[in-house]
Amino acid sequence: MIFTREAYLSQLAQKKQNGMIKIITGLRRCGKSYLLFKLFYDKLVAEGVPKSHIVKIPLDDLEYAELRDKMALYKFIKSKIKDKKQYYCLLDEIQLVEGFEEVLNSLLHIENADVYVTGSNSRFLVKDVITEFRGRGDEIRMYPLSFKEFFEGRNDDFSSAWTDYYTYGGLPLVATMKTHKEKSDYLDNLFSKVYLTDVVDRYSIRNKAEFEELLDVVASSIGSPTNPVKIENTFKSKKKSTITHKTITSYLNYLDDAFLIQTAERFDIKGRKYIGANKKYYFSDVGLRNARLNFRQLEESHIMENIIYNELKMRGYNVDVGIVECRAKDKNGSLRQMQLECDFVANLGNEKIYIQSALNLADEKKKAQEENSLLKINDSFKKVIVQKEKVVPHYDENGIYIVCLEDFLLGTVL
Predict the structure, then answer these.
(1) Is 143 helix (H, G, I), strand (E, B) or coil?
(2) pTM (2 decimals)?
(3) Position 411 in a domain
(4) 127: pLDDT confidence band, cut at 50, 70 and 90?
(5) Is the predicted pLDDT of residue 412 greater than 90, yes or no?
(6) What is the dihedral of CA 342, 346, 347, 348, to 10 degrees?
């Protein structure tokens, strides 16, 4: 099964010869090396670039072990550049070179060298490297397979593909596996032996048990607002733990830095400001989240919300959780000041979309509940409900655009 990753190839093509180091980042095993060494390499060759002008170095290969010395690597690359024509330097697992920042900064001075790198998240964070490059590092953020990429590699219908995707996620290798045992074993081993080890080793976490318990809390509460103080209180009351909210904040940042989770800030839509408390956390791959919980909490509504969030991020949107302050009736019919939530406020350039995620709009009460926050937003930007059930895309009587999940994920709308 071949995944062409056209969106990322397009980004690499657009950034060619822009005078910056192209840094491909993302979750481990999401396909960064395959993108660079197979798909992008083949594209360059197909466009007529001579193979002699593509310097391809997989630094995790024992054959290239001597190039893990920064001076040896720099001299090797320079020795390959024999004329004034354009050269492309593709470097995988660059973090294995101590002092790699000096190598890459030096390569920026070679006018006909266009440089692309990948690295493991545990020791190669784009924010660290961008700082070293003083604005001359250009990030291409890579994700696991989108649903559309996943679906196009299959021969079945949407319903079957959706069940597989929201259960096992979109890591490319998982998508090629057949049985539950294969997929669950792979995801479980990857989580415990690669991702957790990366984070624990990088940050020298001493209390691994507490760190893992926090991870379970985050996995169990995707789509639910929470904050470090609330988690601290839970740990104190239920676990008799002394972990502090400062430590919890650090742990959450570590998981975000490793691309395991993503943080959605809460944004006051009317006040046009961010609210510091009660953020939401989503997993970059829902299969990893489900495996962490031994596939015991497959709540489709929360997982669907997570997948919609990821889809918007893959499309380049900045995504926040919207809060609408308004006076509304409570369950007793009394008017009071309330905070209504809009699942997502998605911004891309001058475009803004407000989005609600709903498994269904089976009755008027449920529909009214989903529309309530959207109707309280007094601007002209598009307001959308994505529902699981199949429906012809349409605007309802309140001007809200109703689309089905299939059309949204396959990119036929929005």
Answers:
(1) coil
(2) 0.93
(3) yes
(4) low
(5) no
(6) -160
Give me the helices (H) in 47-179, please: 70-80, 100-107, 126-133, 147-152, 158-168, 172-175
* pLDDT reported for residue 129: 58
Work out the mean pLDDT of the chain and round it to a whole number. Answer: 92
Residue 106's CB is within 10 A of a number of other CB atoms, namely 15
360 and 273 in a single domain? The answer is yes
| Full residue range of the structural domain in which residue 53 is found | 6-142
Same domain as 188, residue 279: yes
Structural domains of the chain, count: 2
Cβ distance 284 to 317 under 8 Å? no
The DSSP call for residue 140 is: E
Residues 212 and 350 in one domain: yes
Sign (positive/negative) of CA torsion 350, 354, 359, 362?
negative
Please state the rounded mean pLDDT for residues 115-124. 73
Q: Using 50, 70 and 90 to split pLDDT, how confident is the model at 157? A: very high
Residues 110 and 152 in one domain: no
Same domain for 262 and 359, yes or no, is: yes
**Quick one: 214 and 351 in the same domain?**
yes
Rounded to whole angstroms, the Cα distance separating 278 from 275 reads 8
Q: What percent of the chain clears pLDDT 90, i.e. is strictly above it?
A: 74
How would you class 218 by CB atoms within 10 Å of its CB: exposed for 0-12, middle for 13-18, buried for 19 or more? buried
1 occurs within a structural domain:
no
Q: Which residues of 317-330 are buried (b: 16+ CB within 10 A; e: fewer)?
A: bebbbbbbeeeeee
Helices (H), 285-390: 286-292, 300-314, 364-375
pLDDT of residue 170: 97
Residue 23 lies in a domain: yes
**Count of other CB atoms within 10 angstroms of residue 255:** 23
Question: Do 152 and 124 belong together in one domain?
Answer: no
Closest to 231 measured CA to CA, from 218, 276, 292: 218
Pair (55, 119) in one structural domain: yes
